[in-house]
Amino acid sequence: MEYLEVVTTVATKEDAERIARTLLEEHLAACVQIVGPITSMYRWQGEIERADEYQCQIKCRADHFKRIEESIARIHPYEVPEVVAHPLPACSSAYEKWLQTELRD
Questions:
Q1: Which residues cross the membrane (predicted)?
Q2: Domain holding 57: CATH number?
Q3: Helix axes 13-25, 65-75, angle to 10 degrees
Q4: Region 91-96: what's the mean pLDDT?
Q5: Which domain holds residue 84?
Q6: Distance CA 105, CA 64 (A)
Q7: pTM summary value
Q8: What is the per-residue pLDDT across 11-60, written as a single tens digit (0 to 9) for each?
Q9: Burial annotation 37-76 (CB, 10 A radius, 16+ → b, else e)
Q10: pLDDT value, residue 6
Q11: What's the rounded Cα separation, in Å, for the pair 11 and 19?
Q12: What one-character DSSP code corresponds to residue 11?
């Protein structure tokens, strides 16, 4: 089984917690770590922007990425939400067993 860490950012802790709870309730995530506030700088509509945000680090199965992307897009307040994934090439056997237990089809 392949696993990912999917990352998204939002403006408020409440939005981060809503995304986390939704993905956990849908069994698409085994764990969501909420980090923040962080400072993000980015180009948007021709301007350089700065924002304080909260980052969601979502542990999931690779084959769930599309469904996670759709769930985030459905509830995310941004016009273009960040949804990027990083592979988890290795993790401890105990953690992997826990992931398998928590993540369903």
A1: none
A2: 3.30.70.120
A3: 140
A4: 95
A5: 3-102
A6: 8
A7: 0.94
A8: 999 999 999 999 999 999 999 999 999 999 999 999 999 999 999 999 99
A9: eeeeeeeeeeeeeeeebbbbbbbbbeebbeebeebbeeeb
A10: 98
A11: 12
A12: S
